[in-house]
Design goal:
alpha+beta; 9 helices; four-stranded parallel beta sheet
């Protein structure tokens, strides 16, 4: 049957960025004699059906499906555990606590559906620990859509009330050298390979999805070291570590496991070949 792999994406979501990732990876695998097929109807089940692929490129955040595919014997890039750690910002910080310096963060307490009570003491704690402005984030989210800014107590109260029954956290606002900018360090095989600056002049969120633009940045020894410590702690075989430079020092913000690559490759960063070379070596040995 030859060398076969499967690209697993969420069956309810696609966009041009994801389509680009699949196309580029399929091209690179094909040049090495490996067929990358797009997943059809694959679901988590008990028992799990064994799939006849050599490995899977996992571009979804469905941890249950990833775990069941691994249980069925399919090696995934990234692993189910890495997907879980990167998609949940609280779990990311839990995994990195004590390994790198982290920005002041407070996790919102669990609120039951039938709960009632006064949040005044909690919000007092938050503003004393974090201050204003405060960045409020849902634990899971994509492309900056679940990230909010509270400039004062009333805005914090409103956001917390809206998110009360969703897992979320509140962080100190990291003041970058320029508003709406951050540094994204791309990781392949737990190693930092390139860095870009993302800049958004219309929003505090630097995400390209939110209107940010991207340019090549220097991958300094300090950025490389911190990104690789984070990548190893998360077993990040492909993805990014994102930082904001504050007073000349990189401050870790978050990690991502299924990072789009179109904008980076337009800048000349060869992410698809690097990722495919890493996978091919890990699964088969050198395929060139």
């Amino acid at each position: 049957m030859g060398k076969r792999a499967v690209f697993v994406k969420n069956k309810y979501y696609t966009d041009s960025g994801m389509e680009y990732v699949y196309k580029r990876l399929a091209e690179e695998f094909r040049s090495r004699g490996i067929t990358l097929e797009l997943s059809g109807n694959i679901y988590a089940s008990y028992p799990q059906k064994t799939l006849s692929y050599d490995f899977g490129v996992y571009w979804d955040k469905d941890v249950a499906l990833a775990e069941r595919l691994e249980y069925g014997g399919l090696r995934l890039f990234n692993s189910a555990r890495t997907v879980e750690l990167c998609d949940d910002k609280r779990k990311t910080f839990e995994a990195l606590c004590g390994k790198i310096e982290l920005v002041q963060t407070v996790c919102a307490p669990l609120v039951y559906d039938v709960s009632s009570g006064d949040d005044g003491q909690f919000l007092d704690f938050v503003q004393n620990a974090v201050g204003y402005p405060a960045v409020v984030k849902e634990n899971s989210g994509s492309q900056g859509r679940q990230v909010y800014l509270a400039n004062n107590r009333s805005e914090l109260e409103k956001l917390h009330a809206e998110l009360m029954r969703k897992p979320h956290l509140i962080q100190r606002f990291v003041r970058g050298e320029r508003a709406g900018s951050d540094i994204r360090v791309y990781v392949v095989g737990r190693r930092a390979v390139a860095a870009v600056e993302r800049l958004n002049t219309t929003d505090f969120r630097s995400n390209v999805f939110m209107g940010g633009e991207m340019r090549i940045a220097e991958l300094t020894p300090q950025l490389k070291q911190i990104a690789e410590i984070a990548a190893n702690a998360l077993n990040l075989e492909y993805g990014s570590a994102d930082f904001i430079c504050e007073d000349g020092k990189p401050v870790f913000i978050e990690a991502n496991g299924s990072v789009y690559m179109q904008s980076a490759e337009r800048l000349g960063i060869k992410l698809a070949p690097a990722f495919v070379d890493y996978i091919a070596e890990a699964v088969y040995g050198n395929c060139r």
